[in-house]
Every structure is written in structure tokens, then in C-alpha cells.
Amino acid sequence: xxxxxxxxxxxxxxxxxxxxxxxxxxxxxxxxxxxxxxxxxxxxxxxxxxxxxxxxxxxxxxxxxxxxxxxxxxxxxxxxxxxxxxxxxxxxxxxxxxxxxxxxxxxxxxxxxxxxxxxxxxxxxxxxxxxxx
Length: 133
Hints:
Blueprint lengths: L3 H64 L24 E4 L3 E4 L1 H10 L12 E4 L4
Antiparallel strand pairs: 1-2, 1-3
């Protein structure tokens, strides 16, 4: 038979081990939760940038369609044609590399399939309209 003092001491030893496990596994849970939140936040930022690029490309295409008065395409100097389709005028700046080499239609296709610059193969983070005079 154990004395009451021995029982209390045995319970206190067990609670110390329980507290230690609680701290270890609680900290591990917080770390995993924080890492998962960080990954989710990065994916959300990529999603927002992709949507912003898509909206920019839609705006460029709509502006081009509104500004074209007839269906005949003007003859462009060879240096102003899109390097992908070779028909449209260059109208998009690819960022972060800064190349102005493609039209909005080709940019839309490239952003959906493989977002790499056709000139330098650098990853395309975002796009912006280019105004060539």
C-alpha cells in the first residue's frame, strides 16, 4: 500500500511528463500550422498576380478591338511584329525580364500553358501594356 504522500508524488511526476509532451507537441502543431498558412498565403499571392495579369491582357485585347476600325491589318515593320504569331503588333511587356516581344493573344496563351518569355526563357511574373509609337 502506498502512502498518500507517495501517491501525490507519483501523480506529480506523471503530470510533469504530460506537460512536457503537451509543450513539445503543441509547439510542433503550431510550427506545422504556421508553415501550412505560409504556403497557402504564397499560393494566394500567385493566384492574385495571375488574375491581375489575365485582367490586364483582357483589357489590352478589348482596347485593340475597340480601336480597330476595319478588319484589315496594317502592314507593320518586321521589328514590331509578335515573335510568336508574326501577325499582330507587339503590345505586352513581360515582367520581370522586360521584353516587349508578343501580342496580347499570344501572351494570354503563354500565361495559360508555360509562363516563360519566348526570348530569354525567364519566368513571367506579370504583364503590362506596352505603347509603341
